[in-house]
What we know:
Among the domains are: 99 residues, Reverse transcriptase/Diguanylate cyclase domain (Alpha-Beta Plaits, 2-Layer Sandwich); 55 residues, DNA polymerase, domain 1, CATH 1.10.150.20; 113 residues, DNA polymerase, Y-family, little finger domain (Dna Ligase, domain 1), CATH 3.30.1490.100. 39% of the residues lie in helices and 20% in strands. β1 and β2 form a beta hairpin. Keywords: Cytoplasm, DNA damage, DNA repair, DNA replication, DNA-binding, DNA-directed DNA polymerase, Magnesium, Metal-binding, Mutator protein, Nucleotidyltransferase, Transferase.
Amino acid sequence: MYSRFVPGQGFARTSDLGNRSRRVTGEDQQPPPIRKIIHIDMDAFYASVEQRDNPELRGLPVAVGGARARGVVAAASYEARRFGVRSAMPSVTALRKCPDLVFVRPRFDVYRAVSAQIRAIFARYTPLIEPLSLDEAYLDVTENIPGIASATAIAEAIRAEIKAETGLTASAGVSYNKFLAKLASDYRKPDGLFVITPAMGPGFVESLPVGRFHGIGPATTARMNSLGILTGADLRARDLAFLESHFGKAGRHYHGISRGIDHRRVEPDRERKSISAETTYDNDLTSLPAVEAALGELADKVWRHCARHGYSGRTVTIKVRDPRFNDVTRSRTLRDPVGGAAELQAIAMELFLHSLPVEAGIRLLGVGLAALTDGEGDEARQLRLALGPG
Protein backbone atom coordinates (compact mmCIF):
# COMPACT_ATOMS: atom_id res chain seq x y z
CA MET A 1 0.00 0.00 0.00
CA TYR A 2 1.37 3.41 -0.98
CA SER A 3 1.81 6.38 1.30
CA ARG A 4 1.22 9.82 -0.08
CA PHE A 5 2.32 13.25 1.12
CA VAL A 6 -0.58 15.68 1.63
CA PRO A 7 0.35 19.32 2.22
CA GLY A 8 -0.57 20.29 5.76
CA GLN A 9 -1.40 16.68 6.69
CA GLY A 10 1.83 14.75 6.26
CA PHE A 11 1.84 11.20 4.88
CA ALA A 12 -1.34 9.16 4.72
CA ARG A 13 -2.29 5.79 3.34
CA THR A 14 -3.93 5.89 -0.06
CA SER A 15 -7.00 4.07 1.26
CA ASP A 16 -7.50 6.88 3.80
CA LEU A 17 -6.89 9.47 1.12
CA GLY A 18 -9.43 7.83 -1.14
CA ASN A 19 -12.08 7.87 1.55
CA ARG A 20 -11.27 11.46 2.45
CA SER A 21 -11.38 12.50 -1.22
CA ARG A 22 -14.76 10.84 -1.74
CA ARG A 23 -16.17 12.57 1.34
CA VAL A 24 -14.97 15.97 0.14
CA THR A 25 -15.74 15.71 -3.57
CA GLY A 26 -18.28 12.94 -3.76
CA GLU A 27 -16.15 11.28 -6.45
CA ASP A 28 -14.69 7.78 -6.45
CA GLN A 29 -11.56 8.77 -8.35
CA GLN A 30 -8.54 9.78 -6.29
CA PRO A 31 -5.30 11.43 -7.45
CA PRO A 32 -2.38 9.08 -8.11
CA PRO A 33 -0.01 8.52 -5.19
CA ILE A 34 3.18 10.53 -5.09
CA ARG A 35 5.96 8.28 -6.24
CA LYS A 36 9.55 8.02 -5.04
CA ILE A 37 11.81 8.40 -8.07
CA ILE A 38 15.61 8.24 -8.22
CA HIS A 39 17.65 9.39 -11.21
CA ILE A 40 21.17 7.94 -11.26
CA ASP A 41 23.72 9.56 -13.58
CA MET A 42 27.28 8.26 -13.78
CA ASP A 43 29.90 11.00 -13.64
CA ALA A 44 31.74 11.46 -16.99
CA PHE A 45 31.14 7.76 -17.54
CA TYR A 46 33.23 6.84 -20.60
CA ALA A 47 36.12 9.09 -19.57
CA SER A 48 35.98 7.90 -15.95
CA VAL A 49 36.20 4.26 -17.07
CA GLU A 50 39.30 5.11 -19.12
CA GLN A 51 40.90 6.93 -16.19
CA ARG A 52 40.06 4.05 -13.88
CA ASP A 53 41.66 1.49 -16.18
CA ASN A 54 44.70 3.61 -17.10
CA PRO A 55 46.21 5.36 -14.06
CA GLU A 56 48.38 7.52 -16.36
CA LEU A 57 45.22 9.34 -17.48
CA ARG A 58 44.10 10.31 -13.98
CA GLY A 59 44.15 14.04 -13.41
CA LEU A 60 44.55 14.77 -17.11
CA PRO A 61 41.99 16.37 -19.47
CA VAL A 62 40.67 13.33 -21.34
CA ALA A 63 38.27 13.08 -24.28
CA VAL A 64 36.86 9.82 -25.53
CA GLY A 65 36.55 10.13 -29.30
CA GLY A 66 38.36 10.71 -32.55
CA ALA A 67 41.12 13.32 -32.70
CA ARG A 68 41.06 14.00 -36.45
CA ALA A 69 39.32 16.81 -38.28
CA ARG A 70 35.97 15.03 -38.57
CA GLY A 71 36.09 13.52 -35.10
CA VAL A 72 33.60 14.23 -32.33
CA VAL A 73 33.98 14.14 -28.55
CA ALA A 74 31.82 11.33 -27.19
CA ALA A 75 32.66 12.11 -23.56
CA ALA A 76 34.96 14.43 -21.61
CA SER A 77 36.53 14.11 -18.18
CA TYR A 78 35.85 16.79 -15.60
CA GLU A 79 39.42 18.02 -16.06
CA ALA A 80 38.58 18.63 -19.75
CA ARG A 81 35.21 20.19 -18.96
CA ARG A 82 36.94 22.96 -17.03
CA PHE A 83 38.25 24.15 -20.41
CA GLY A 84 34.78 24.06 -21.96
CA VAL A 85 35.12 20.68 -23.67
CA ARG A 86 31.75 18.92 -23.97
CA SER A 87 30.31 15.77 -25.51
CA ALA A 88 29.22 16.05 -29.16
CA MET A 89 31.74 18.88 -29.68
CA PRO A 90 33.89 18.65 -32.85
CA SER A 91 37.36 17.45 -31.93
CA VAL A 92 39.06 20.43 -33.58
CA THR A 93 37.00 22.78 -31.40
CA ALA A 94 37.86 20.76 -28.29
CA LEU A 95 41.58 20.97 -29.10
CA ARG A 96 41.37 24.73 -29.55
CA LYS A 97 39.81 25.01 -26.11
CA CYS A 98 42.26 22.59 -24.52
CA PRO A 99 45.52 22.05 -26.47
CA ASP A 100 46.69 19.44 -23.94
CA LEU A 101 43.55 17.33 -24.39
CA VAL A 102 44.29 13.59 -24.47
CA PHE A 103 42.10 11.63 -26.90
CA VAL A 104 41.28 7.99 -26.17
CA ARG A 105 39.53 5.66 -28.58
CA PRO A 106 36.27 4.33 -27.13
CA ARG A 107 35.77 0.80 -25.84
CA PHE A 108 32.02 0.29 -26.02
CA ASP A 109 32.29 -3.36 -25.01
CA VAL A 110 33.87 -2.28 -21.71
CA TYR A 111 31.31 0.49 -21.14
CA ARG A 112 28.47 -1.95 -21.73
CA ALA A 113 29.97 -4.45 -19.30
CA VAL A 114 30.30 -1.80 -16.57
CA SER A 115 26.79 -0.58 -17.32
CA ALA A 116 25.51 -4.13 -16.80
CA GLN A 117 27.24 -4.22 -13.40
CA ILE A 118 25.50 -1.01 -12.42
CA ARG A 119 22.14 -2.24 -13.69
CA ALA A 120 22.53 -5.34 -11.51
CA ILE A 121 22.95 -3.07 -8.48
CA PHE A 122 19.73 -1.23 -9.37
CA ALA A 123 17.90 -4.55 -9.62
CA ARG A 124 18.67 -5.33 -5.97
CA TYR A 125 16.30 -2.53 -5.06
CA THR A 126 13.57 -2.38 -7.70
CA PRO A 127 12.45 -4.00 -10.95
CA LEU A 128 11.18 -0.61 -12.16
CA ILE A 129 14.30 0.57 -13.98
CA GLU A 130 14.14 2.81 -17.06
CA PRO A 131 17.58 3.08 -18.68
CA LEU A 132 18.14 6.24 -20.70
CA SER A 133 21.61 5.26 -21.87
CA LEU A 134 24.58 3.23 -20.64
CA ASP A 135 25.26 5.78 -17.92
CA GLU A 136 21.90 6.92 -16.55
CA ALA A 137 18.54 5.55 -15.50
CA TYR A 138 15.35 6.29 -13.60
CA LEU A 139 14.31 4.02 -10.74
CA ASP A 140 10.87 3.91 -9.11
CA VAL A 141 11.43 2.86 -5.49
CA THR A 142 7.96 3.70 -4.15
CA GLU A 143 7.73 0.00 -3.38
CA ASN A 144 11.16 -1.61 -3.27
CA ILE A 145 12.66 -5.03 -2.70
CA PRO A 146 14.41 -4.37 0.66
CA GLY A 147 11.36 -2.53 1.96
CA ILE A 148 13.30 0.66 2.76
CA ALA A 149 11.00 3.59 3.46
CA SER A 150 13.47 6.33 2.49
CA ALA A 151 14.26 6.87 -1.19
CA THR A 152 17.23 8.98 -0.10
CA ALA A 153 18.64 6.05 1.87
CA ILE A 154 18.27 3.83 -1.19
CA ALA A 155 20.07 6.37 -3.38
CA GLU A 156 22.90 6.59 -0.87
CA ALA A 157 23.20 2.80 -0.77
CA ILE A 158 23.23 2.51 -4.57
CA ARG A 159 25.94 5.15 -4.90
CA ALA A 160 28.06 3.40 -2.28
CA GLU A 161 27.69 0.02 -3.99
CA ILE A 162 28.56 1.46 -7.40
CA LYS A 163 31.73 2.98 -5.94
CA ALA A 164 32.71 -0.22 -4.14
CA GLU A 165 32.06 -2.56 -7.07
CA THR A 166 33.16 -0.47 -10.07
CA GLY A 167 35.46 2.19 -8.64
CA LEU A 168 33.32 4.88 -10.28
CA THR A 169 31.22 7.69 -8.86
CA ALA A 170 27.56 8.39 -9.57
CA SER A 171 25.34 11.37 -8.86
CA ALA A 172 21.76 10.87 -7.76
CA GLY A 173 18.61 12.93 -7.69
CA VAL A 174 15.61 11.98 -5.55
CA SER A 175 12.15 13.43 -5.98
CA TYR A 176 8.48 12.67 -6.51
CA ASN A 177 8.62 12.68 -10.32
CA LYS A 178 11.04 12.08 -13.18
CA PHE A 179 11.51 15.69 -14.22
CA LEU A 180 12.55 16.83 -10.76
CA ALA A 181 14.69 13.76 -10.09
CA LYS A 182 16.65 14.53 -13.26
CA LEU A 183 17.11 18.16 -12.21
CA ALA A 184 18.22 17.03 -8.76
CA SER A 185 20.90 14.65 -10.08
CA ASP A 186 22.52 17.53 -11.98
CA TYR A 187 22.44 19.86 -9.00
CA ARG A 188 25.49 18.58 -7.10
CA LYS A 189 27.55 16.83 -9.74
CA PRO A 190 29.97 15.15 -9.60
CA ASP A 191 29.61 12.52 -6.89
CA GLY A 192 26.62 14.25 -5.29
CA LEU A 193 23.10 13.59 -4.09
CA PHE A 194 20.24 16.07 -3.91
CA VAL A 195 16.62 15.69 -2.84
CA ILE A 196 13.66 17.76 -4.03
CA THR A 197 10.69 17.19 -1.72
CA PRO A 198 7.03 17.83 -2.65
CA ALA A 199 7.15 21.04 -0.64
CA MET A 200 10.27 22.22 -2.51
CA GLY A 201 9.27 21.25 -6.05
CA PRO A 202 7.34 24.24 -7.45
CA GLY A 203 9.66 26.80 -5.85
CA PHE A 204 12.78 24.96 -7.04
CA VAL A 205 11.52 25.03 -10.63
CA GLU A 206 10.60 28.71 -10.48
CA SER A 207 14.15 29.80 -9.66
CA LEU A 208 15.88 27.99 -12.55
CA PRO A 209 16.63 29.32 -16.03
CA VAL A 210 14.56 27.40 -18.59
CA GLY A 211 17.79 26.34 -20.30
CA ARG A 212 18.49 24.12 -17.28
CA PHE A 213 15.29 22.14 -17.81
CA HIS A 214 15.81 18.62 -19.13
CA GLY A 215 14.18 18.42 -22.56
CA ILE A 216 14.45 22.13 -23.34
CA GLY A 217 17.39 22.49 -25.71
CA PRO A 218 19.20 25.58 -27.01
CA ALA A 219 16.74 26.28 -29.84
CA THR A 220 13.67 26.06 -27.59
CA THR A 221 15.45 28.09 -24.92
CA ALA A 222 16.11 30.83 -27.46
CA ARG A 223 12.46 30.81 -28.54
CA MET A 224 11.27 30.98 -24.95
CA ASN A 225 13.69 33.79 -24.19
CA SER A 226 12.38 35.72 -27.21
CA LEU A 227 8.90 35.43 -25.68
CA GLY A 228 10.13 36.78 -22.35
CA ILE A 229 10.32 33.35 -20.72
CA LEU A 230 13.66 33.27 -18.95
CA THR A 231 12.96 31.27 -15.78
CA GLY A 232 10.60 28.66 -14.47
CA ALA A 233 8.58 31.46 -12.89
CA ASP A 234 8.17 33.12 -16.29
CA LEU A 235 7.09 29.80 -17.79
CA ARG A 236 4.56 29.26 -15.02
CA ALA A 237 3.07 32.70 -15.66
CA ARG A 238 2.03 31.65 -19.19
CA ASP A 239 -1.27 29.87 -19.48
CA LEU A 240 -1.79 26.57 -21.27
CA ALA A 241 -3.35 28.15 -24.36
CA PHE A 242 -0.34 30.42 -24.84
CA LEU A 243 2.16 27.58 -24.48
CA GLU A 244 0.28 25.27 -26.83
CA SER A 245 -0.04 28.01 -29.44
CA HIS A 246 3.73 28.54 -29.42
CA PHE A 247 5.06 25.05 -28.69
CA GLY A 248 2.36 22.66 -29.88
CA LYS A 249 1.86 19.45 -27.93
CA ALA A 250 4.98 20.15 -25.88
CA GLY A 251 3.19 23.16 -24.41
CA ARG A 252 1.17 20.95 -22.06
CA HIS A 253 4.35 19.33 -20.77
CA TYR A 254 5.97 22.74 -20.21
CA HIS A 255 2.82 23.91 -18.40
CA GLY A 256 3.08 20.96 -16.01
CA ILE A 257 6.80 21.00 -15.28
CA SER A 258 6.74 24.74 -14.57
CA ARG A 259 4.53 23.77 -11.62
CA GLY A 260 6.66 20.80 -10.59
CA ILE A 261 4.14 18.37 -12.13
CA ASP A 262 5.19 15.38 -14.24
CA HIS A 263 2.97 12.29 -14.40
CA ARG A 264 5.25 10.19 -16.62
CA ARG A 265 5.86 6.73 -15.19
CA VAL A 266 9.16 4.88 -15.02
CA GLU A 267 9.00 2.51 -17.99
CA PRO A 268 11.17 -0.59 -17.52
CA ASP A 269 13.24 -1.72 -20.52
CA ARG A 270 11.79 0.90 -22.79
CA GLU A 271 13.09 0.39 -26.31
CA ARG A 272 13.87 3.61 -28.12
CA LYS A 273 12.69 3.44 -31.72
CA SER A 274 13.60 6.93 -32.92
CA ILE A 275 15.13 10.25 -31.97
CA SER A 276 13.53 13.44 -33.21
CA ALA A 277 13.22 17.17 -32.66
CA GLU A 278 10.72 19.70 -33.93
CA THR A 279 10.10 23.43 -33.62
CA THR A 280 7.01 25.57 -34.16
CA TYR A 281 7.98 29.03 -35.42
CA ASP A 282 6.46 32.31 -34.28
CA ASN A 283 6.83 33.64 -37.83
CA ASP A 284 6.37 31.29 -40.79
CA LEU A 285 9.53 30.41 -42.69
CA THR A 286 9.25 31.62 -46.28
CA SER A 287 12.74 31.20 -47.78
CA LEU A 288 15.02 28.25 -48.49
CA PRO A 289 17.96 29.74 -46.53
CA ALA A 290 15.72 30.09 -43.48
CA VAL A 291 14.54 26.48 -43.85
CA GLU A 292 18.10 25.23 -44.32
CA ALA A 293 19.25 27.02 -41.16
CA ALA A 294 16.27 25.67 -39.21
CA LEU A 295 16.92 22.12 -40.38
CA GLY A 296 20.54 22.55 -39.37
CA GLU A 297 19.53 23.44 -35.81
CA LEU A 298 17.19 20.46 -35.61
CA ALA A 299 19.79 18.09 -37.07
CA ASP A 300 22.36 19.30 -34.54
CA LYS A 301 19.92 18.68 -31.68
CA VAL A 302 19.14 15.15 -32.87
CA TRP A 303 22.83 14.44 -33.44
CA ARG A 304 23.91 15.61 -30.00
CA HIS A 305 21.48 13.13 -28.50
CA CYS A 306 22.76 10.34 -30.76
CA ALA A 307 26.39 11.04 -29.89
CA ARG A 308 25.67 11.06 -26.16
CA HIS A 309 23.77 7.79 -26.17
CA GLY A 310 25.79 5.86 -28.76
CA TYR A 311 22.95 5.37 -31.26
CA SER A 312 23.14 4.93 -34.99
CA GLY A 313 20.26 5.34 -37.44
CA ARG A 314 19.49 4.73 -41.11
CA THR A 315 16.05 6.29 -41.61
CA VAL A 316 15.78 10.06 -41.85
CA THR A 317 12.33 11.65 -41.52
CA ILE A 318 11.15 15.22 -41.78
CA LYS A 319 7.84 16.71 -40.74
CA VAL A 320 6.52 19.91 -42.32
CA ARG A 321 3.43 21.86 -41.24
CA ASP A 322 1.96 24.70 -43.26
CA PRO A 323 0.06 27.73 -41.84
CA ARG A 324 -3.25 25.84 -42.23
CA PHE A 325 -1.93 23.04 -39.97
CA ASN A 326 -1.59 20.53 -42.79
CA ASP A 327 1.23 18.08 -42.02
CA VAL A 328 3.47 16.40 -44.57
CA THR A 329 6.11 13.80 -43.68
CA ARG A 330 8.87 12.39 -45.87
CA SER A 331 11.36 9.62 -45.07
CA ARG A 332 14.37 7.95 -46.60
CA THR A 333 16.11 4.77 -45.43
CA LEU A 334 19.81 4.53 -46.21
CA ARG A 335 22.04 1.49 -46.59
CA ASP A 336 24.41 2.72 -43.85
CA PRO A 337 23.82 4.94 -40.82
CA VAL A 338 24.01 8.70 -41.25
CA GLY A 339 27.57 9.93 -40.76
CA GLY A 340 27.07 13.24 -38.96
CA ALA A 341 24.90 16.28 -38.32
CA ALA A 342 25.85 17.83 -41.67
CA GLU A 343 24.78 14.71 -43.55
CA LEU A 344 21.56 14.54 -41.55
CA GLN A 345 20.82 18.17 -42.43
CA ALA A 346 21.60 17.57 -46.12
CA ILE A 347 19.25 14.60 -46.37
CA ALA A 348 16.54 16.48 -44.48
CA MET A 349 16.91 19.41 -46.88
CA GLU A 350 16.66 17.13 -49.89
CA LEU A 351 13.50 15.58 -48.46
CA PHE A 352 12.10 19.04 -47.82
CA LEU A 353 12.54 20.06 -51.45
CA HIS A 354 10.08 17.29 -52.37
CA SER A 355 7.51 18.36 -49.75
CA LEU A 356 5.93 21.80 -49.81
CA PRO A 357 6.78 25.01 -51.67
CA VAL A 358 8.49 27.22 -49.14
CA GLU A 359 6.62 30.25 -50.45
CA ALA A 360 3.44 28.84 -48.88
CA GLY A 361 4.99 29.35 -45.46
CA ILE A 362 6.31 26.80 -42.98
CA ARG A 363 4.86 26.85 -39.46
CA LEU A 364 6.65 23.78 -38.06
CA LEU A 365 9.66 21.67 -38.98
CA GLY A 366 10.79 18.38 -37.50
CA VAL A 367 13.75 16.08 -38.11
CA GLY A 368 13.92 12.46 -36.94
CA LEU A 369 16.33 9.54 -37.10
CA ALA A 370 14.98 5.99 -36.88
CA ALA A 371 16.05 2.38 -37.56
CA LEU A 372 18.33 2.83 -34.56
CA THR A 373 21.02 0.31 -33.70
CA ASP A 374 23.41 -0.01 -30.80
CA GLY A 375 24.38 -3.68 -30.80
CA GLU A 376 27.78 -5.36 -30.97
CA GLY A 377 27.42 -6.04 -34.67
CA ASP A 378 27.07 -2.34 -35.39
CA GLU A 379 30.21 -1.18 -33.56
CA ALA A 380 31.92 0.20 -36.64
CA ARG A 381 28.78 2.10 -37.56
CA GLN A 382 28.51 3.55 -34.09
CA LEU A 383 32.08 4.75 -34.19
CA ARG A 384 31.45 6.43 -37.53
CA LEU A 385 28.28 7.96 -36.14
CA ALA A 386 29.56 9.37 -32.88
CA LEU A 387 33.24 9.90 -33.49
CA GLY A 388 34.22 10.17 -37.12
CA PRO A 389 37.58 8.79 -38.33
CA GLY A 390 40.62 9.00 -36.12
